[in-house]
């Protein structure tokens, strides 16, 4: 509520009614989806897994899964001293379509993620043989940001560092809907983009990496 009041004030307005709070909540939920389209939200990365079933080609993921960042096949998951993670390659739908026998059995080493509207579906190849029915497909997913709730009862699903960007963005989106705040739209848009860039700069992977050129011939 306080962030909504702050956003209305930045737009030169005053939040006076329950409708004002509802319209702010709608803007917040849409802005959360916009942020998912802008790039990787590190706080939305979660580790999940499912157990292979012999001969099964497809597995449905949770509906709030947006994409998979990385995945492995984990054998002996119940025994920490014996379990081993082996990489599994993500392939395109074209590559998967060219597999002649999609029900061939063995150790799964490829997967294609079919991002359906209701929920993503994983296709694995080859399907798990009997010796891999205790193995797991372990993956790191990007989940959808939780919305503000039907009555604004949920805390907005962001780290504290993104509160300035959230407030600036909400002020901008509110001004877009209010004719009396039209003059402030360019300024609020500029402030929103600046605050988001500042937060996004902190929300990135900071592990070192290097590029090694592959030069076989000169």
Explain what you see.
This protein has helices at residues 2-10, 18-38, 93-97, 163-177, 185-202, and strands at 45-51, 58-60, 65-75, 84-87, 89-90, 105-106, 110-115, 120-125, 127-128, 136-143. It has 218 residues and is α+β, with helices and mostly antiparallel strands. Helix 1 packs across helix 4 (163-177), helix 2 crosses helix 4 (163-177) and helix 4 runs antiparallel to helix 5 (185-202). The N and C termini lie far apart (64 Å).
In the sheet with the most strands, the strands line up as 1-10-3-4
Radius of gyration: 23 Å
Portion in helices: 25-40%
Shape: elongated
Helix/strand structural class: alpha+beta
Order of helices and strands: HHEEEEEHEEEEEHH
**Helix count, DSSP H or I runs of 4 or more residues:** 5
Q: Enumerate the spans where pLDDT stays under 50 for 5 or more consecutive residues.
A: none
Detail the topology: elements first, then pairings.
Layout: H1 2-10, H2 18-38, E1 45-51, E2 58-60, E3 65-75, E4 84-87, E5 89-90, H3 93-97, E6 105-106, E7 110-115, E8 120-125, E9 127-128, E10 136-143, H4 163-177, H5 185-202
Parallel strand pairs: 5-7, 6-9
Antiparallel strand pairs: 1-10, 2-8, 3-4, 3-10, 7-8
Q: How would you concisely characterize the structure shown here?
A:
By secondary structure, this protein is α+β, with helices and mostly antiparallel strands. 31% of the residues lie in helices and 23% in strands. Strand 3 (65-75) and strand 4 (84-87) form a beta hairpin.
């Amino acid at each position: 509520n306080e962030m909504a009041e702050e956003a209305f004030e930045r737009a030169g307005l005053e939040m006076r009614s329950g409708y004002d709070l509802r319209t702010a909540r709608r803007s917040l939920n849409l802005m959360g989806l916009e942020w998912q389209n802008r790039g990787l939200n590190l706080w939305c990365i979660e580790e999940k897994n499912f157990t292979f079933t012999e001969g099964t080609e497809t597995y449905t993921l949770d509906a709030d899964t947006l994409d998979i960042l990385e995945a492995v096949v984990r054998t002996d998951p119940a025994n920490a001293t014996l379990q081993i993670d082996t990489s599994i390659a993500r392939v395109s739908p074209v590559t998967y379509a060219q597999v002649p026998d999609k029900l061939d059995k063995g150790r799964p080493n490829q997967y294609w993620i079919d991002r359906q509207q209701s929920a993503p579906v994983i296709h694995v190849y080859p399907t798990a043989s009997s010796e891999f029915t205790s193995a797991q497909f372990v993956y790191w997913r990007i989940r959808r940001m939780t919305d503000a709730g039907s009555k604004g009862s949920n805390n907005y699903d962001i780290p504290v560092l993104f509160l300035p960007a959230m407030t600036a963005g909400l002020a901008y989106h509110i001004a877009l809907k209010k004719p009396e705040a039209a003059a402030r739209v360019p300024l609020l848009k500029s402030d929103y983009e600046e605050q988001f860039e500042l937060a996004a700069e902190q929300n990135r992977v900071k592990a070192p990496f290097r590029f090694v050129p592959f030069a076989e011939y000169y």
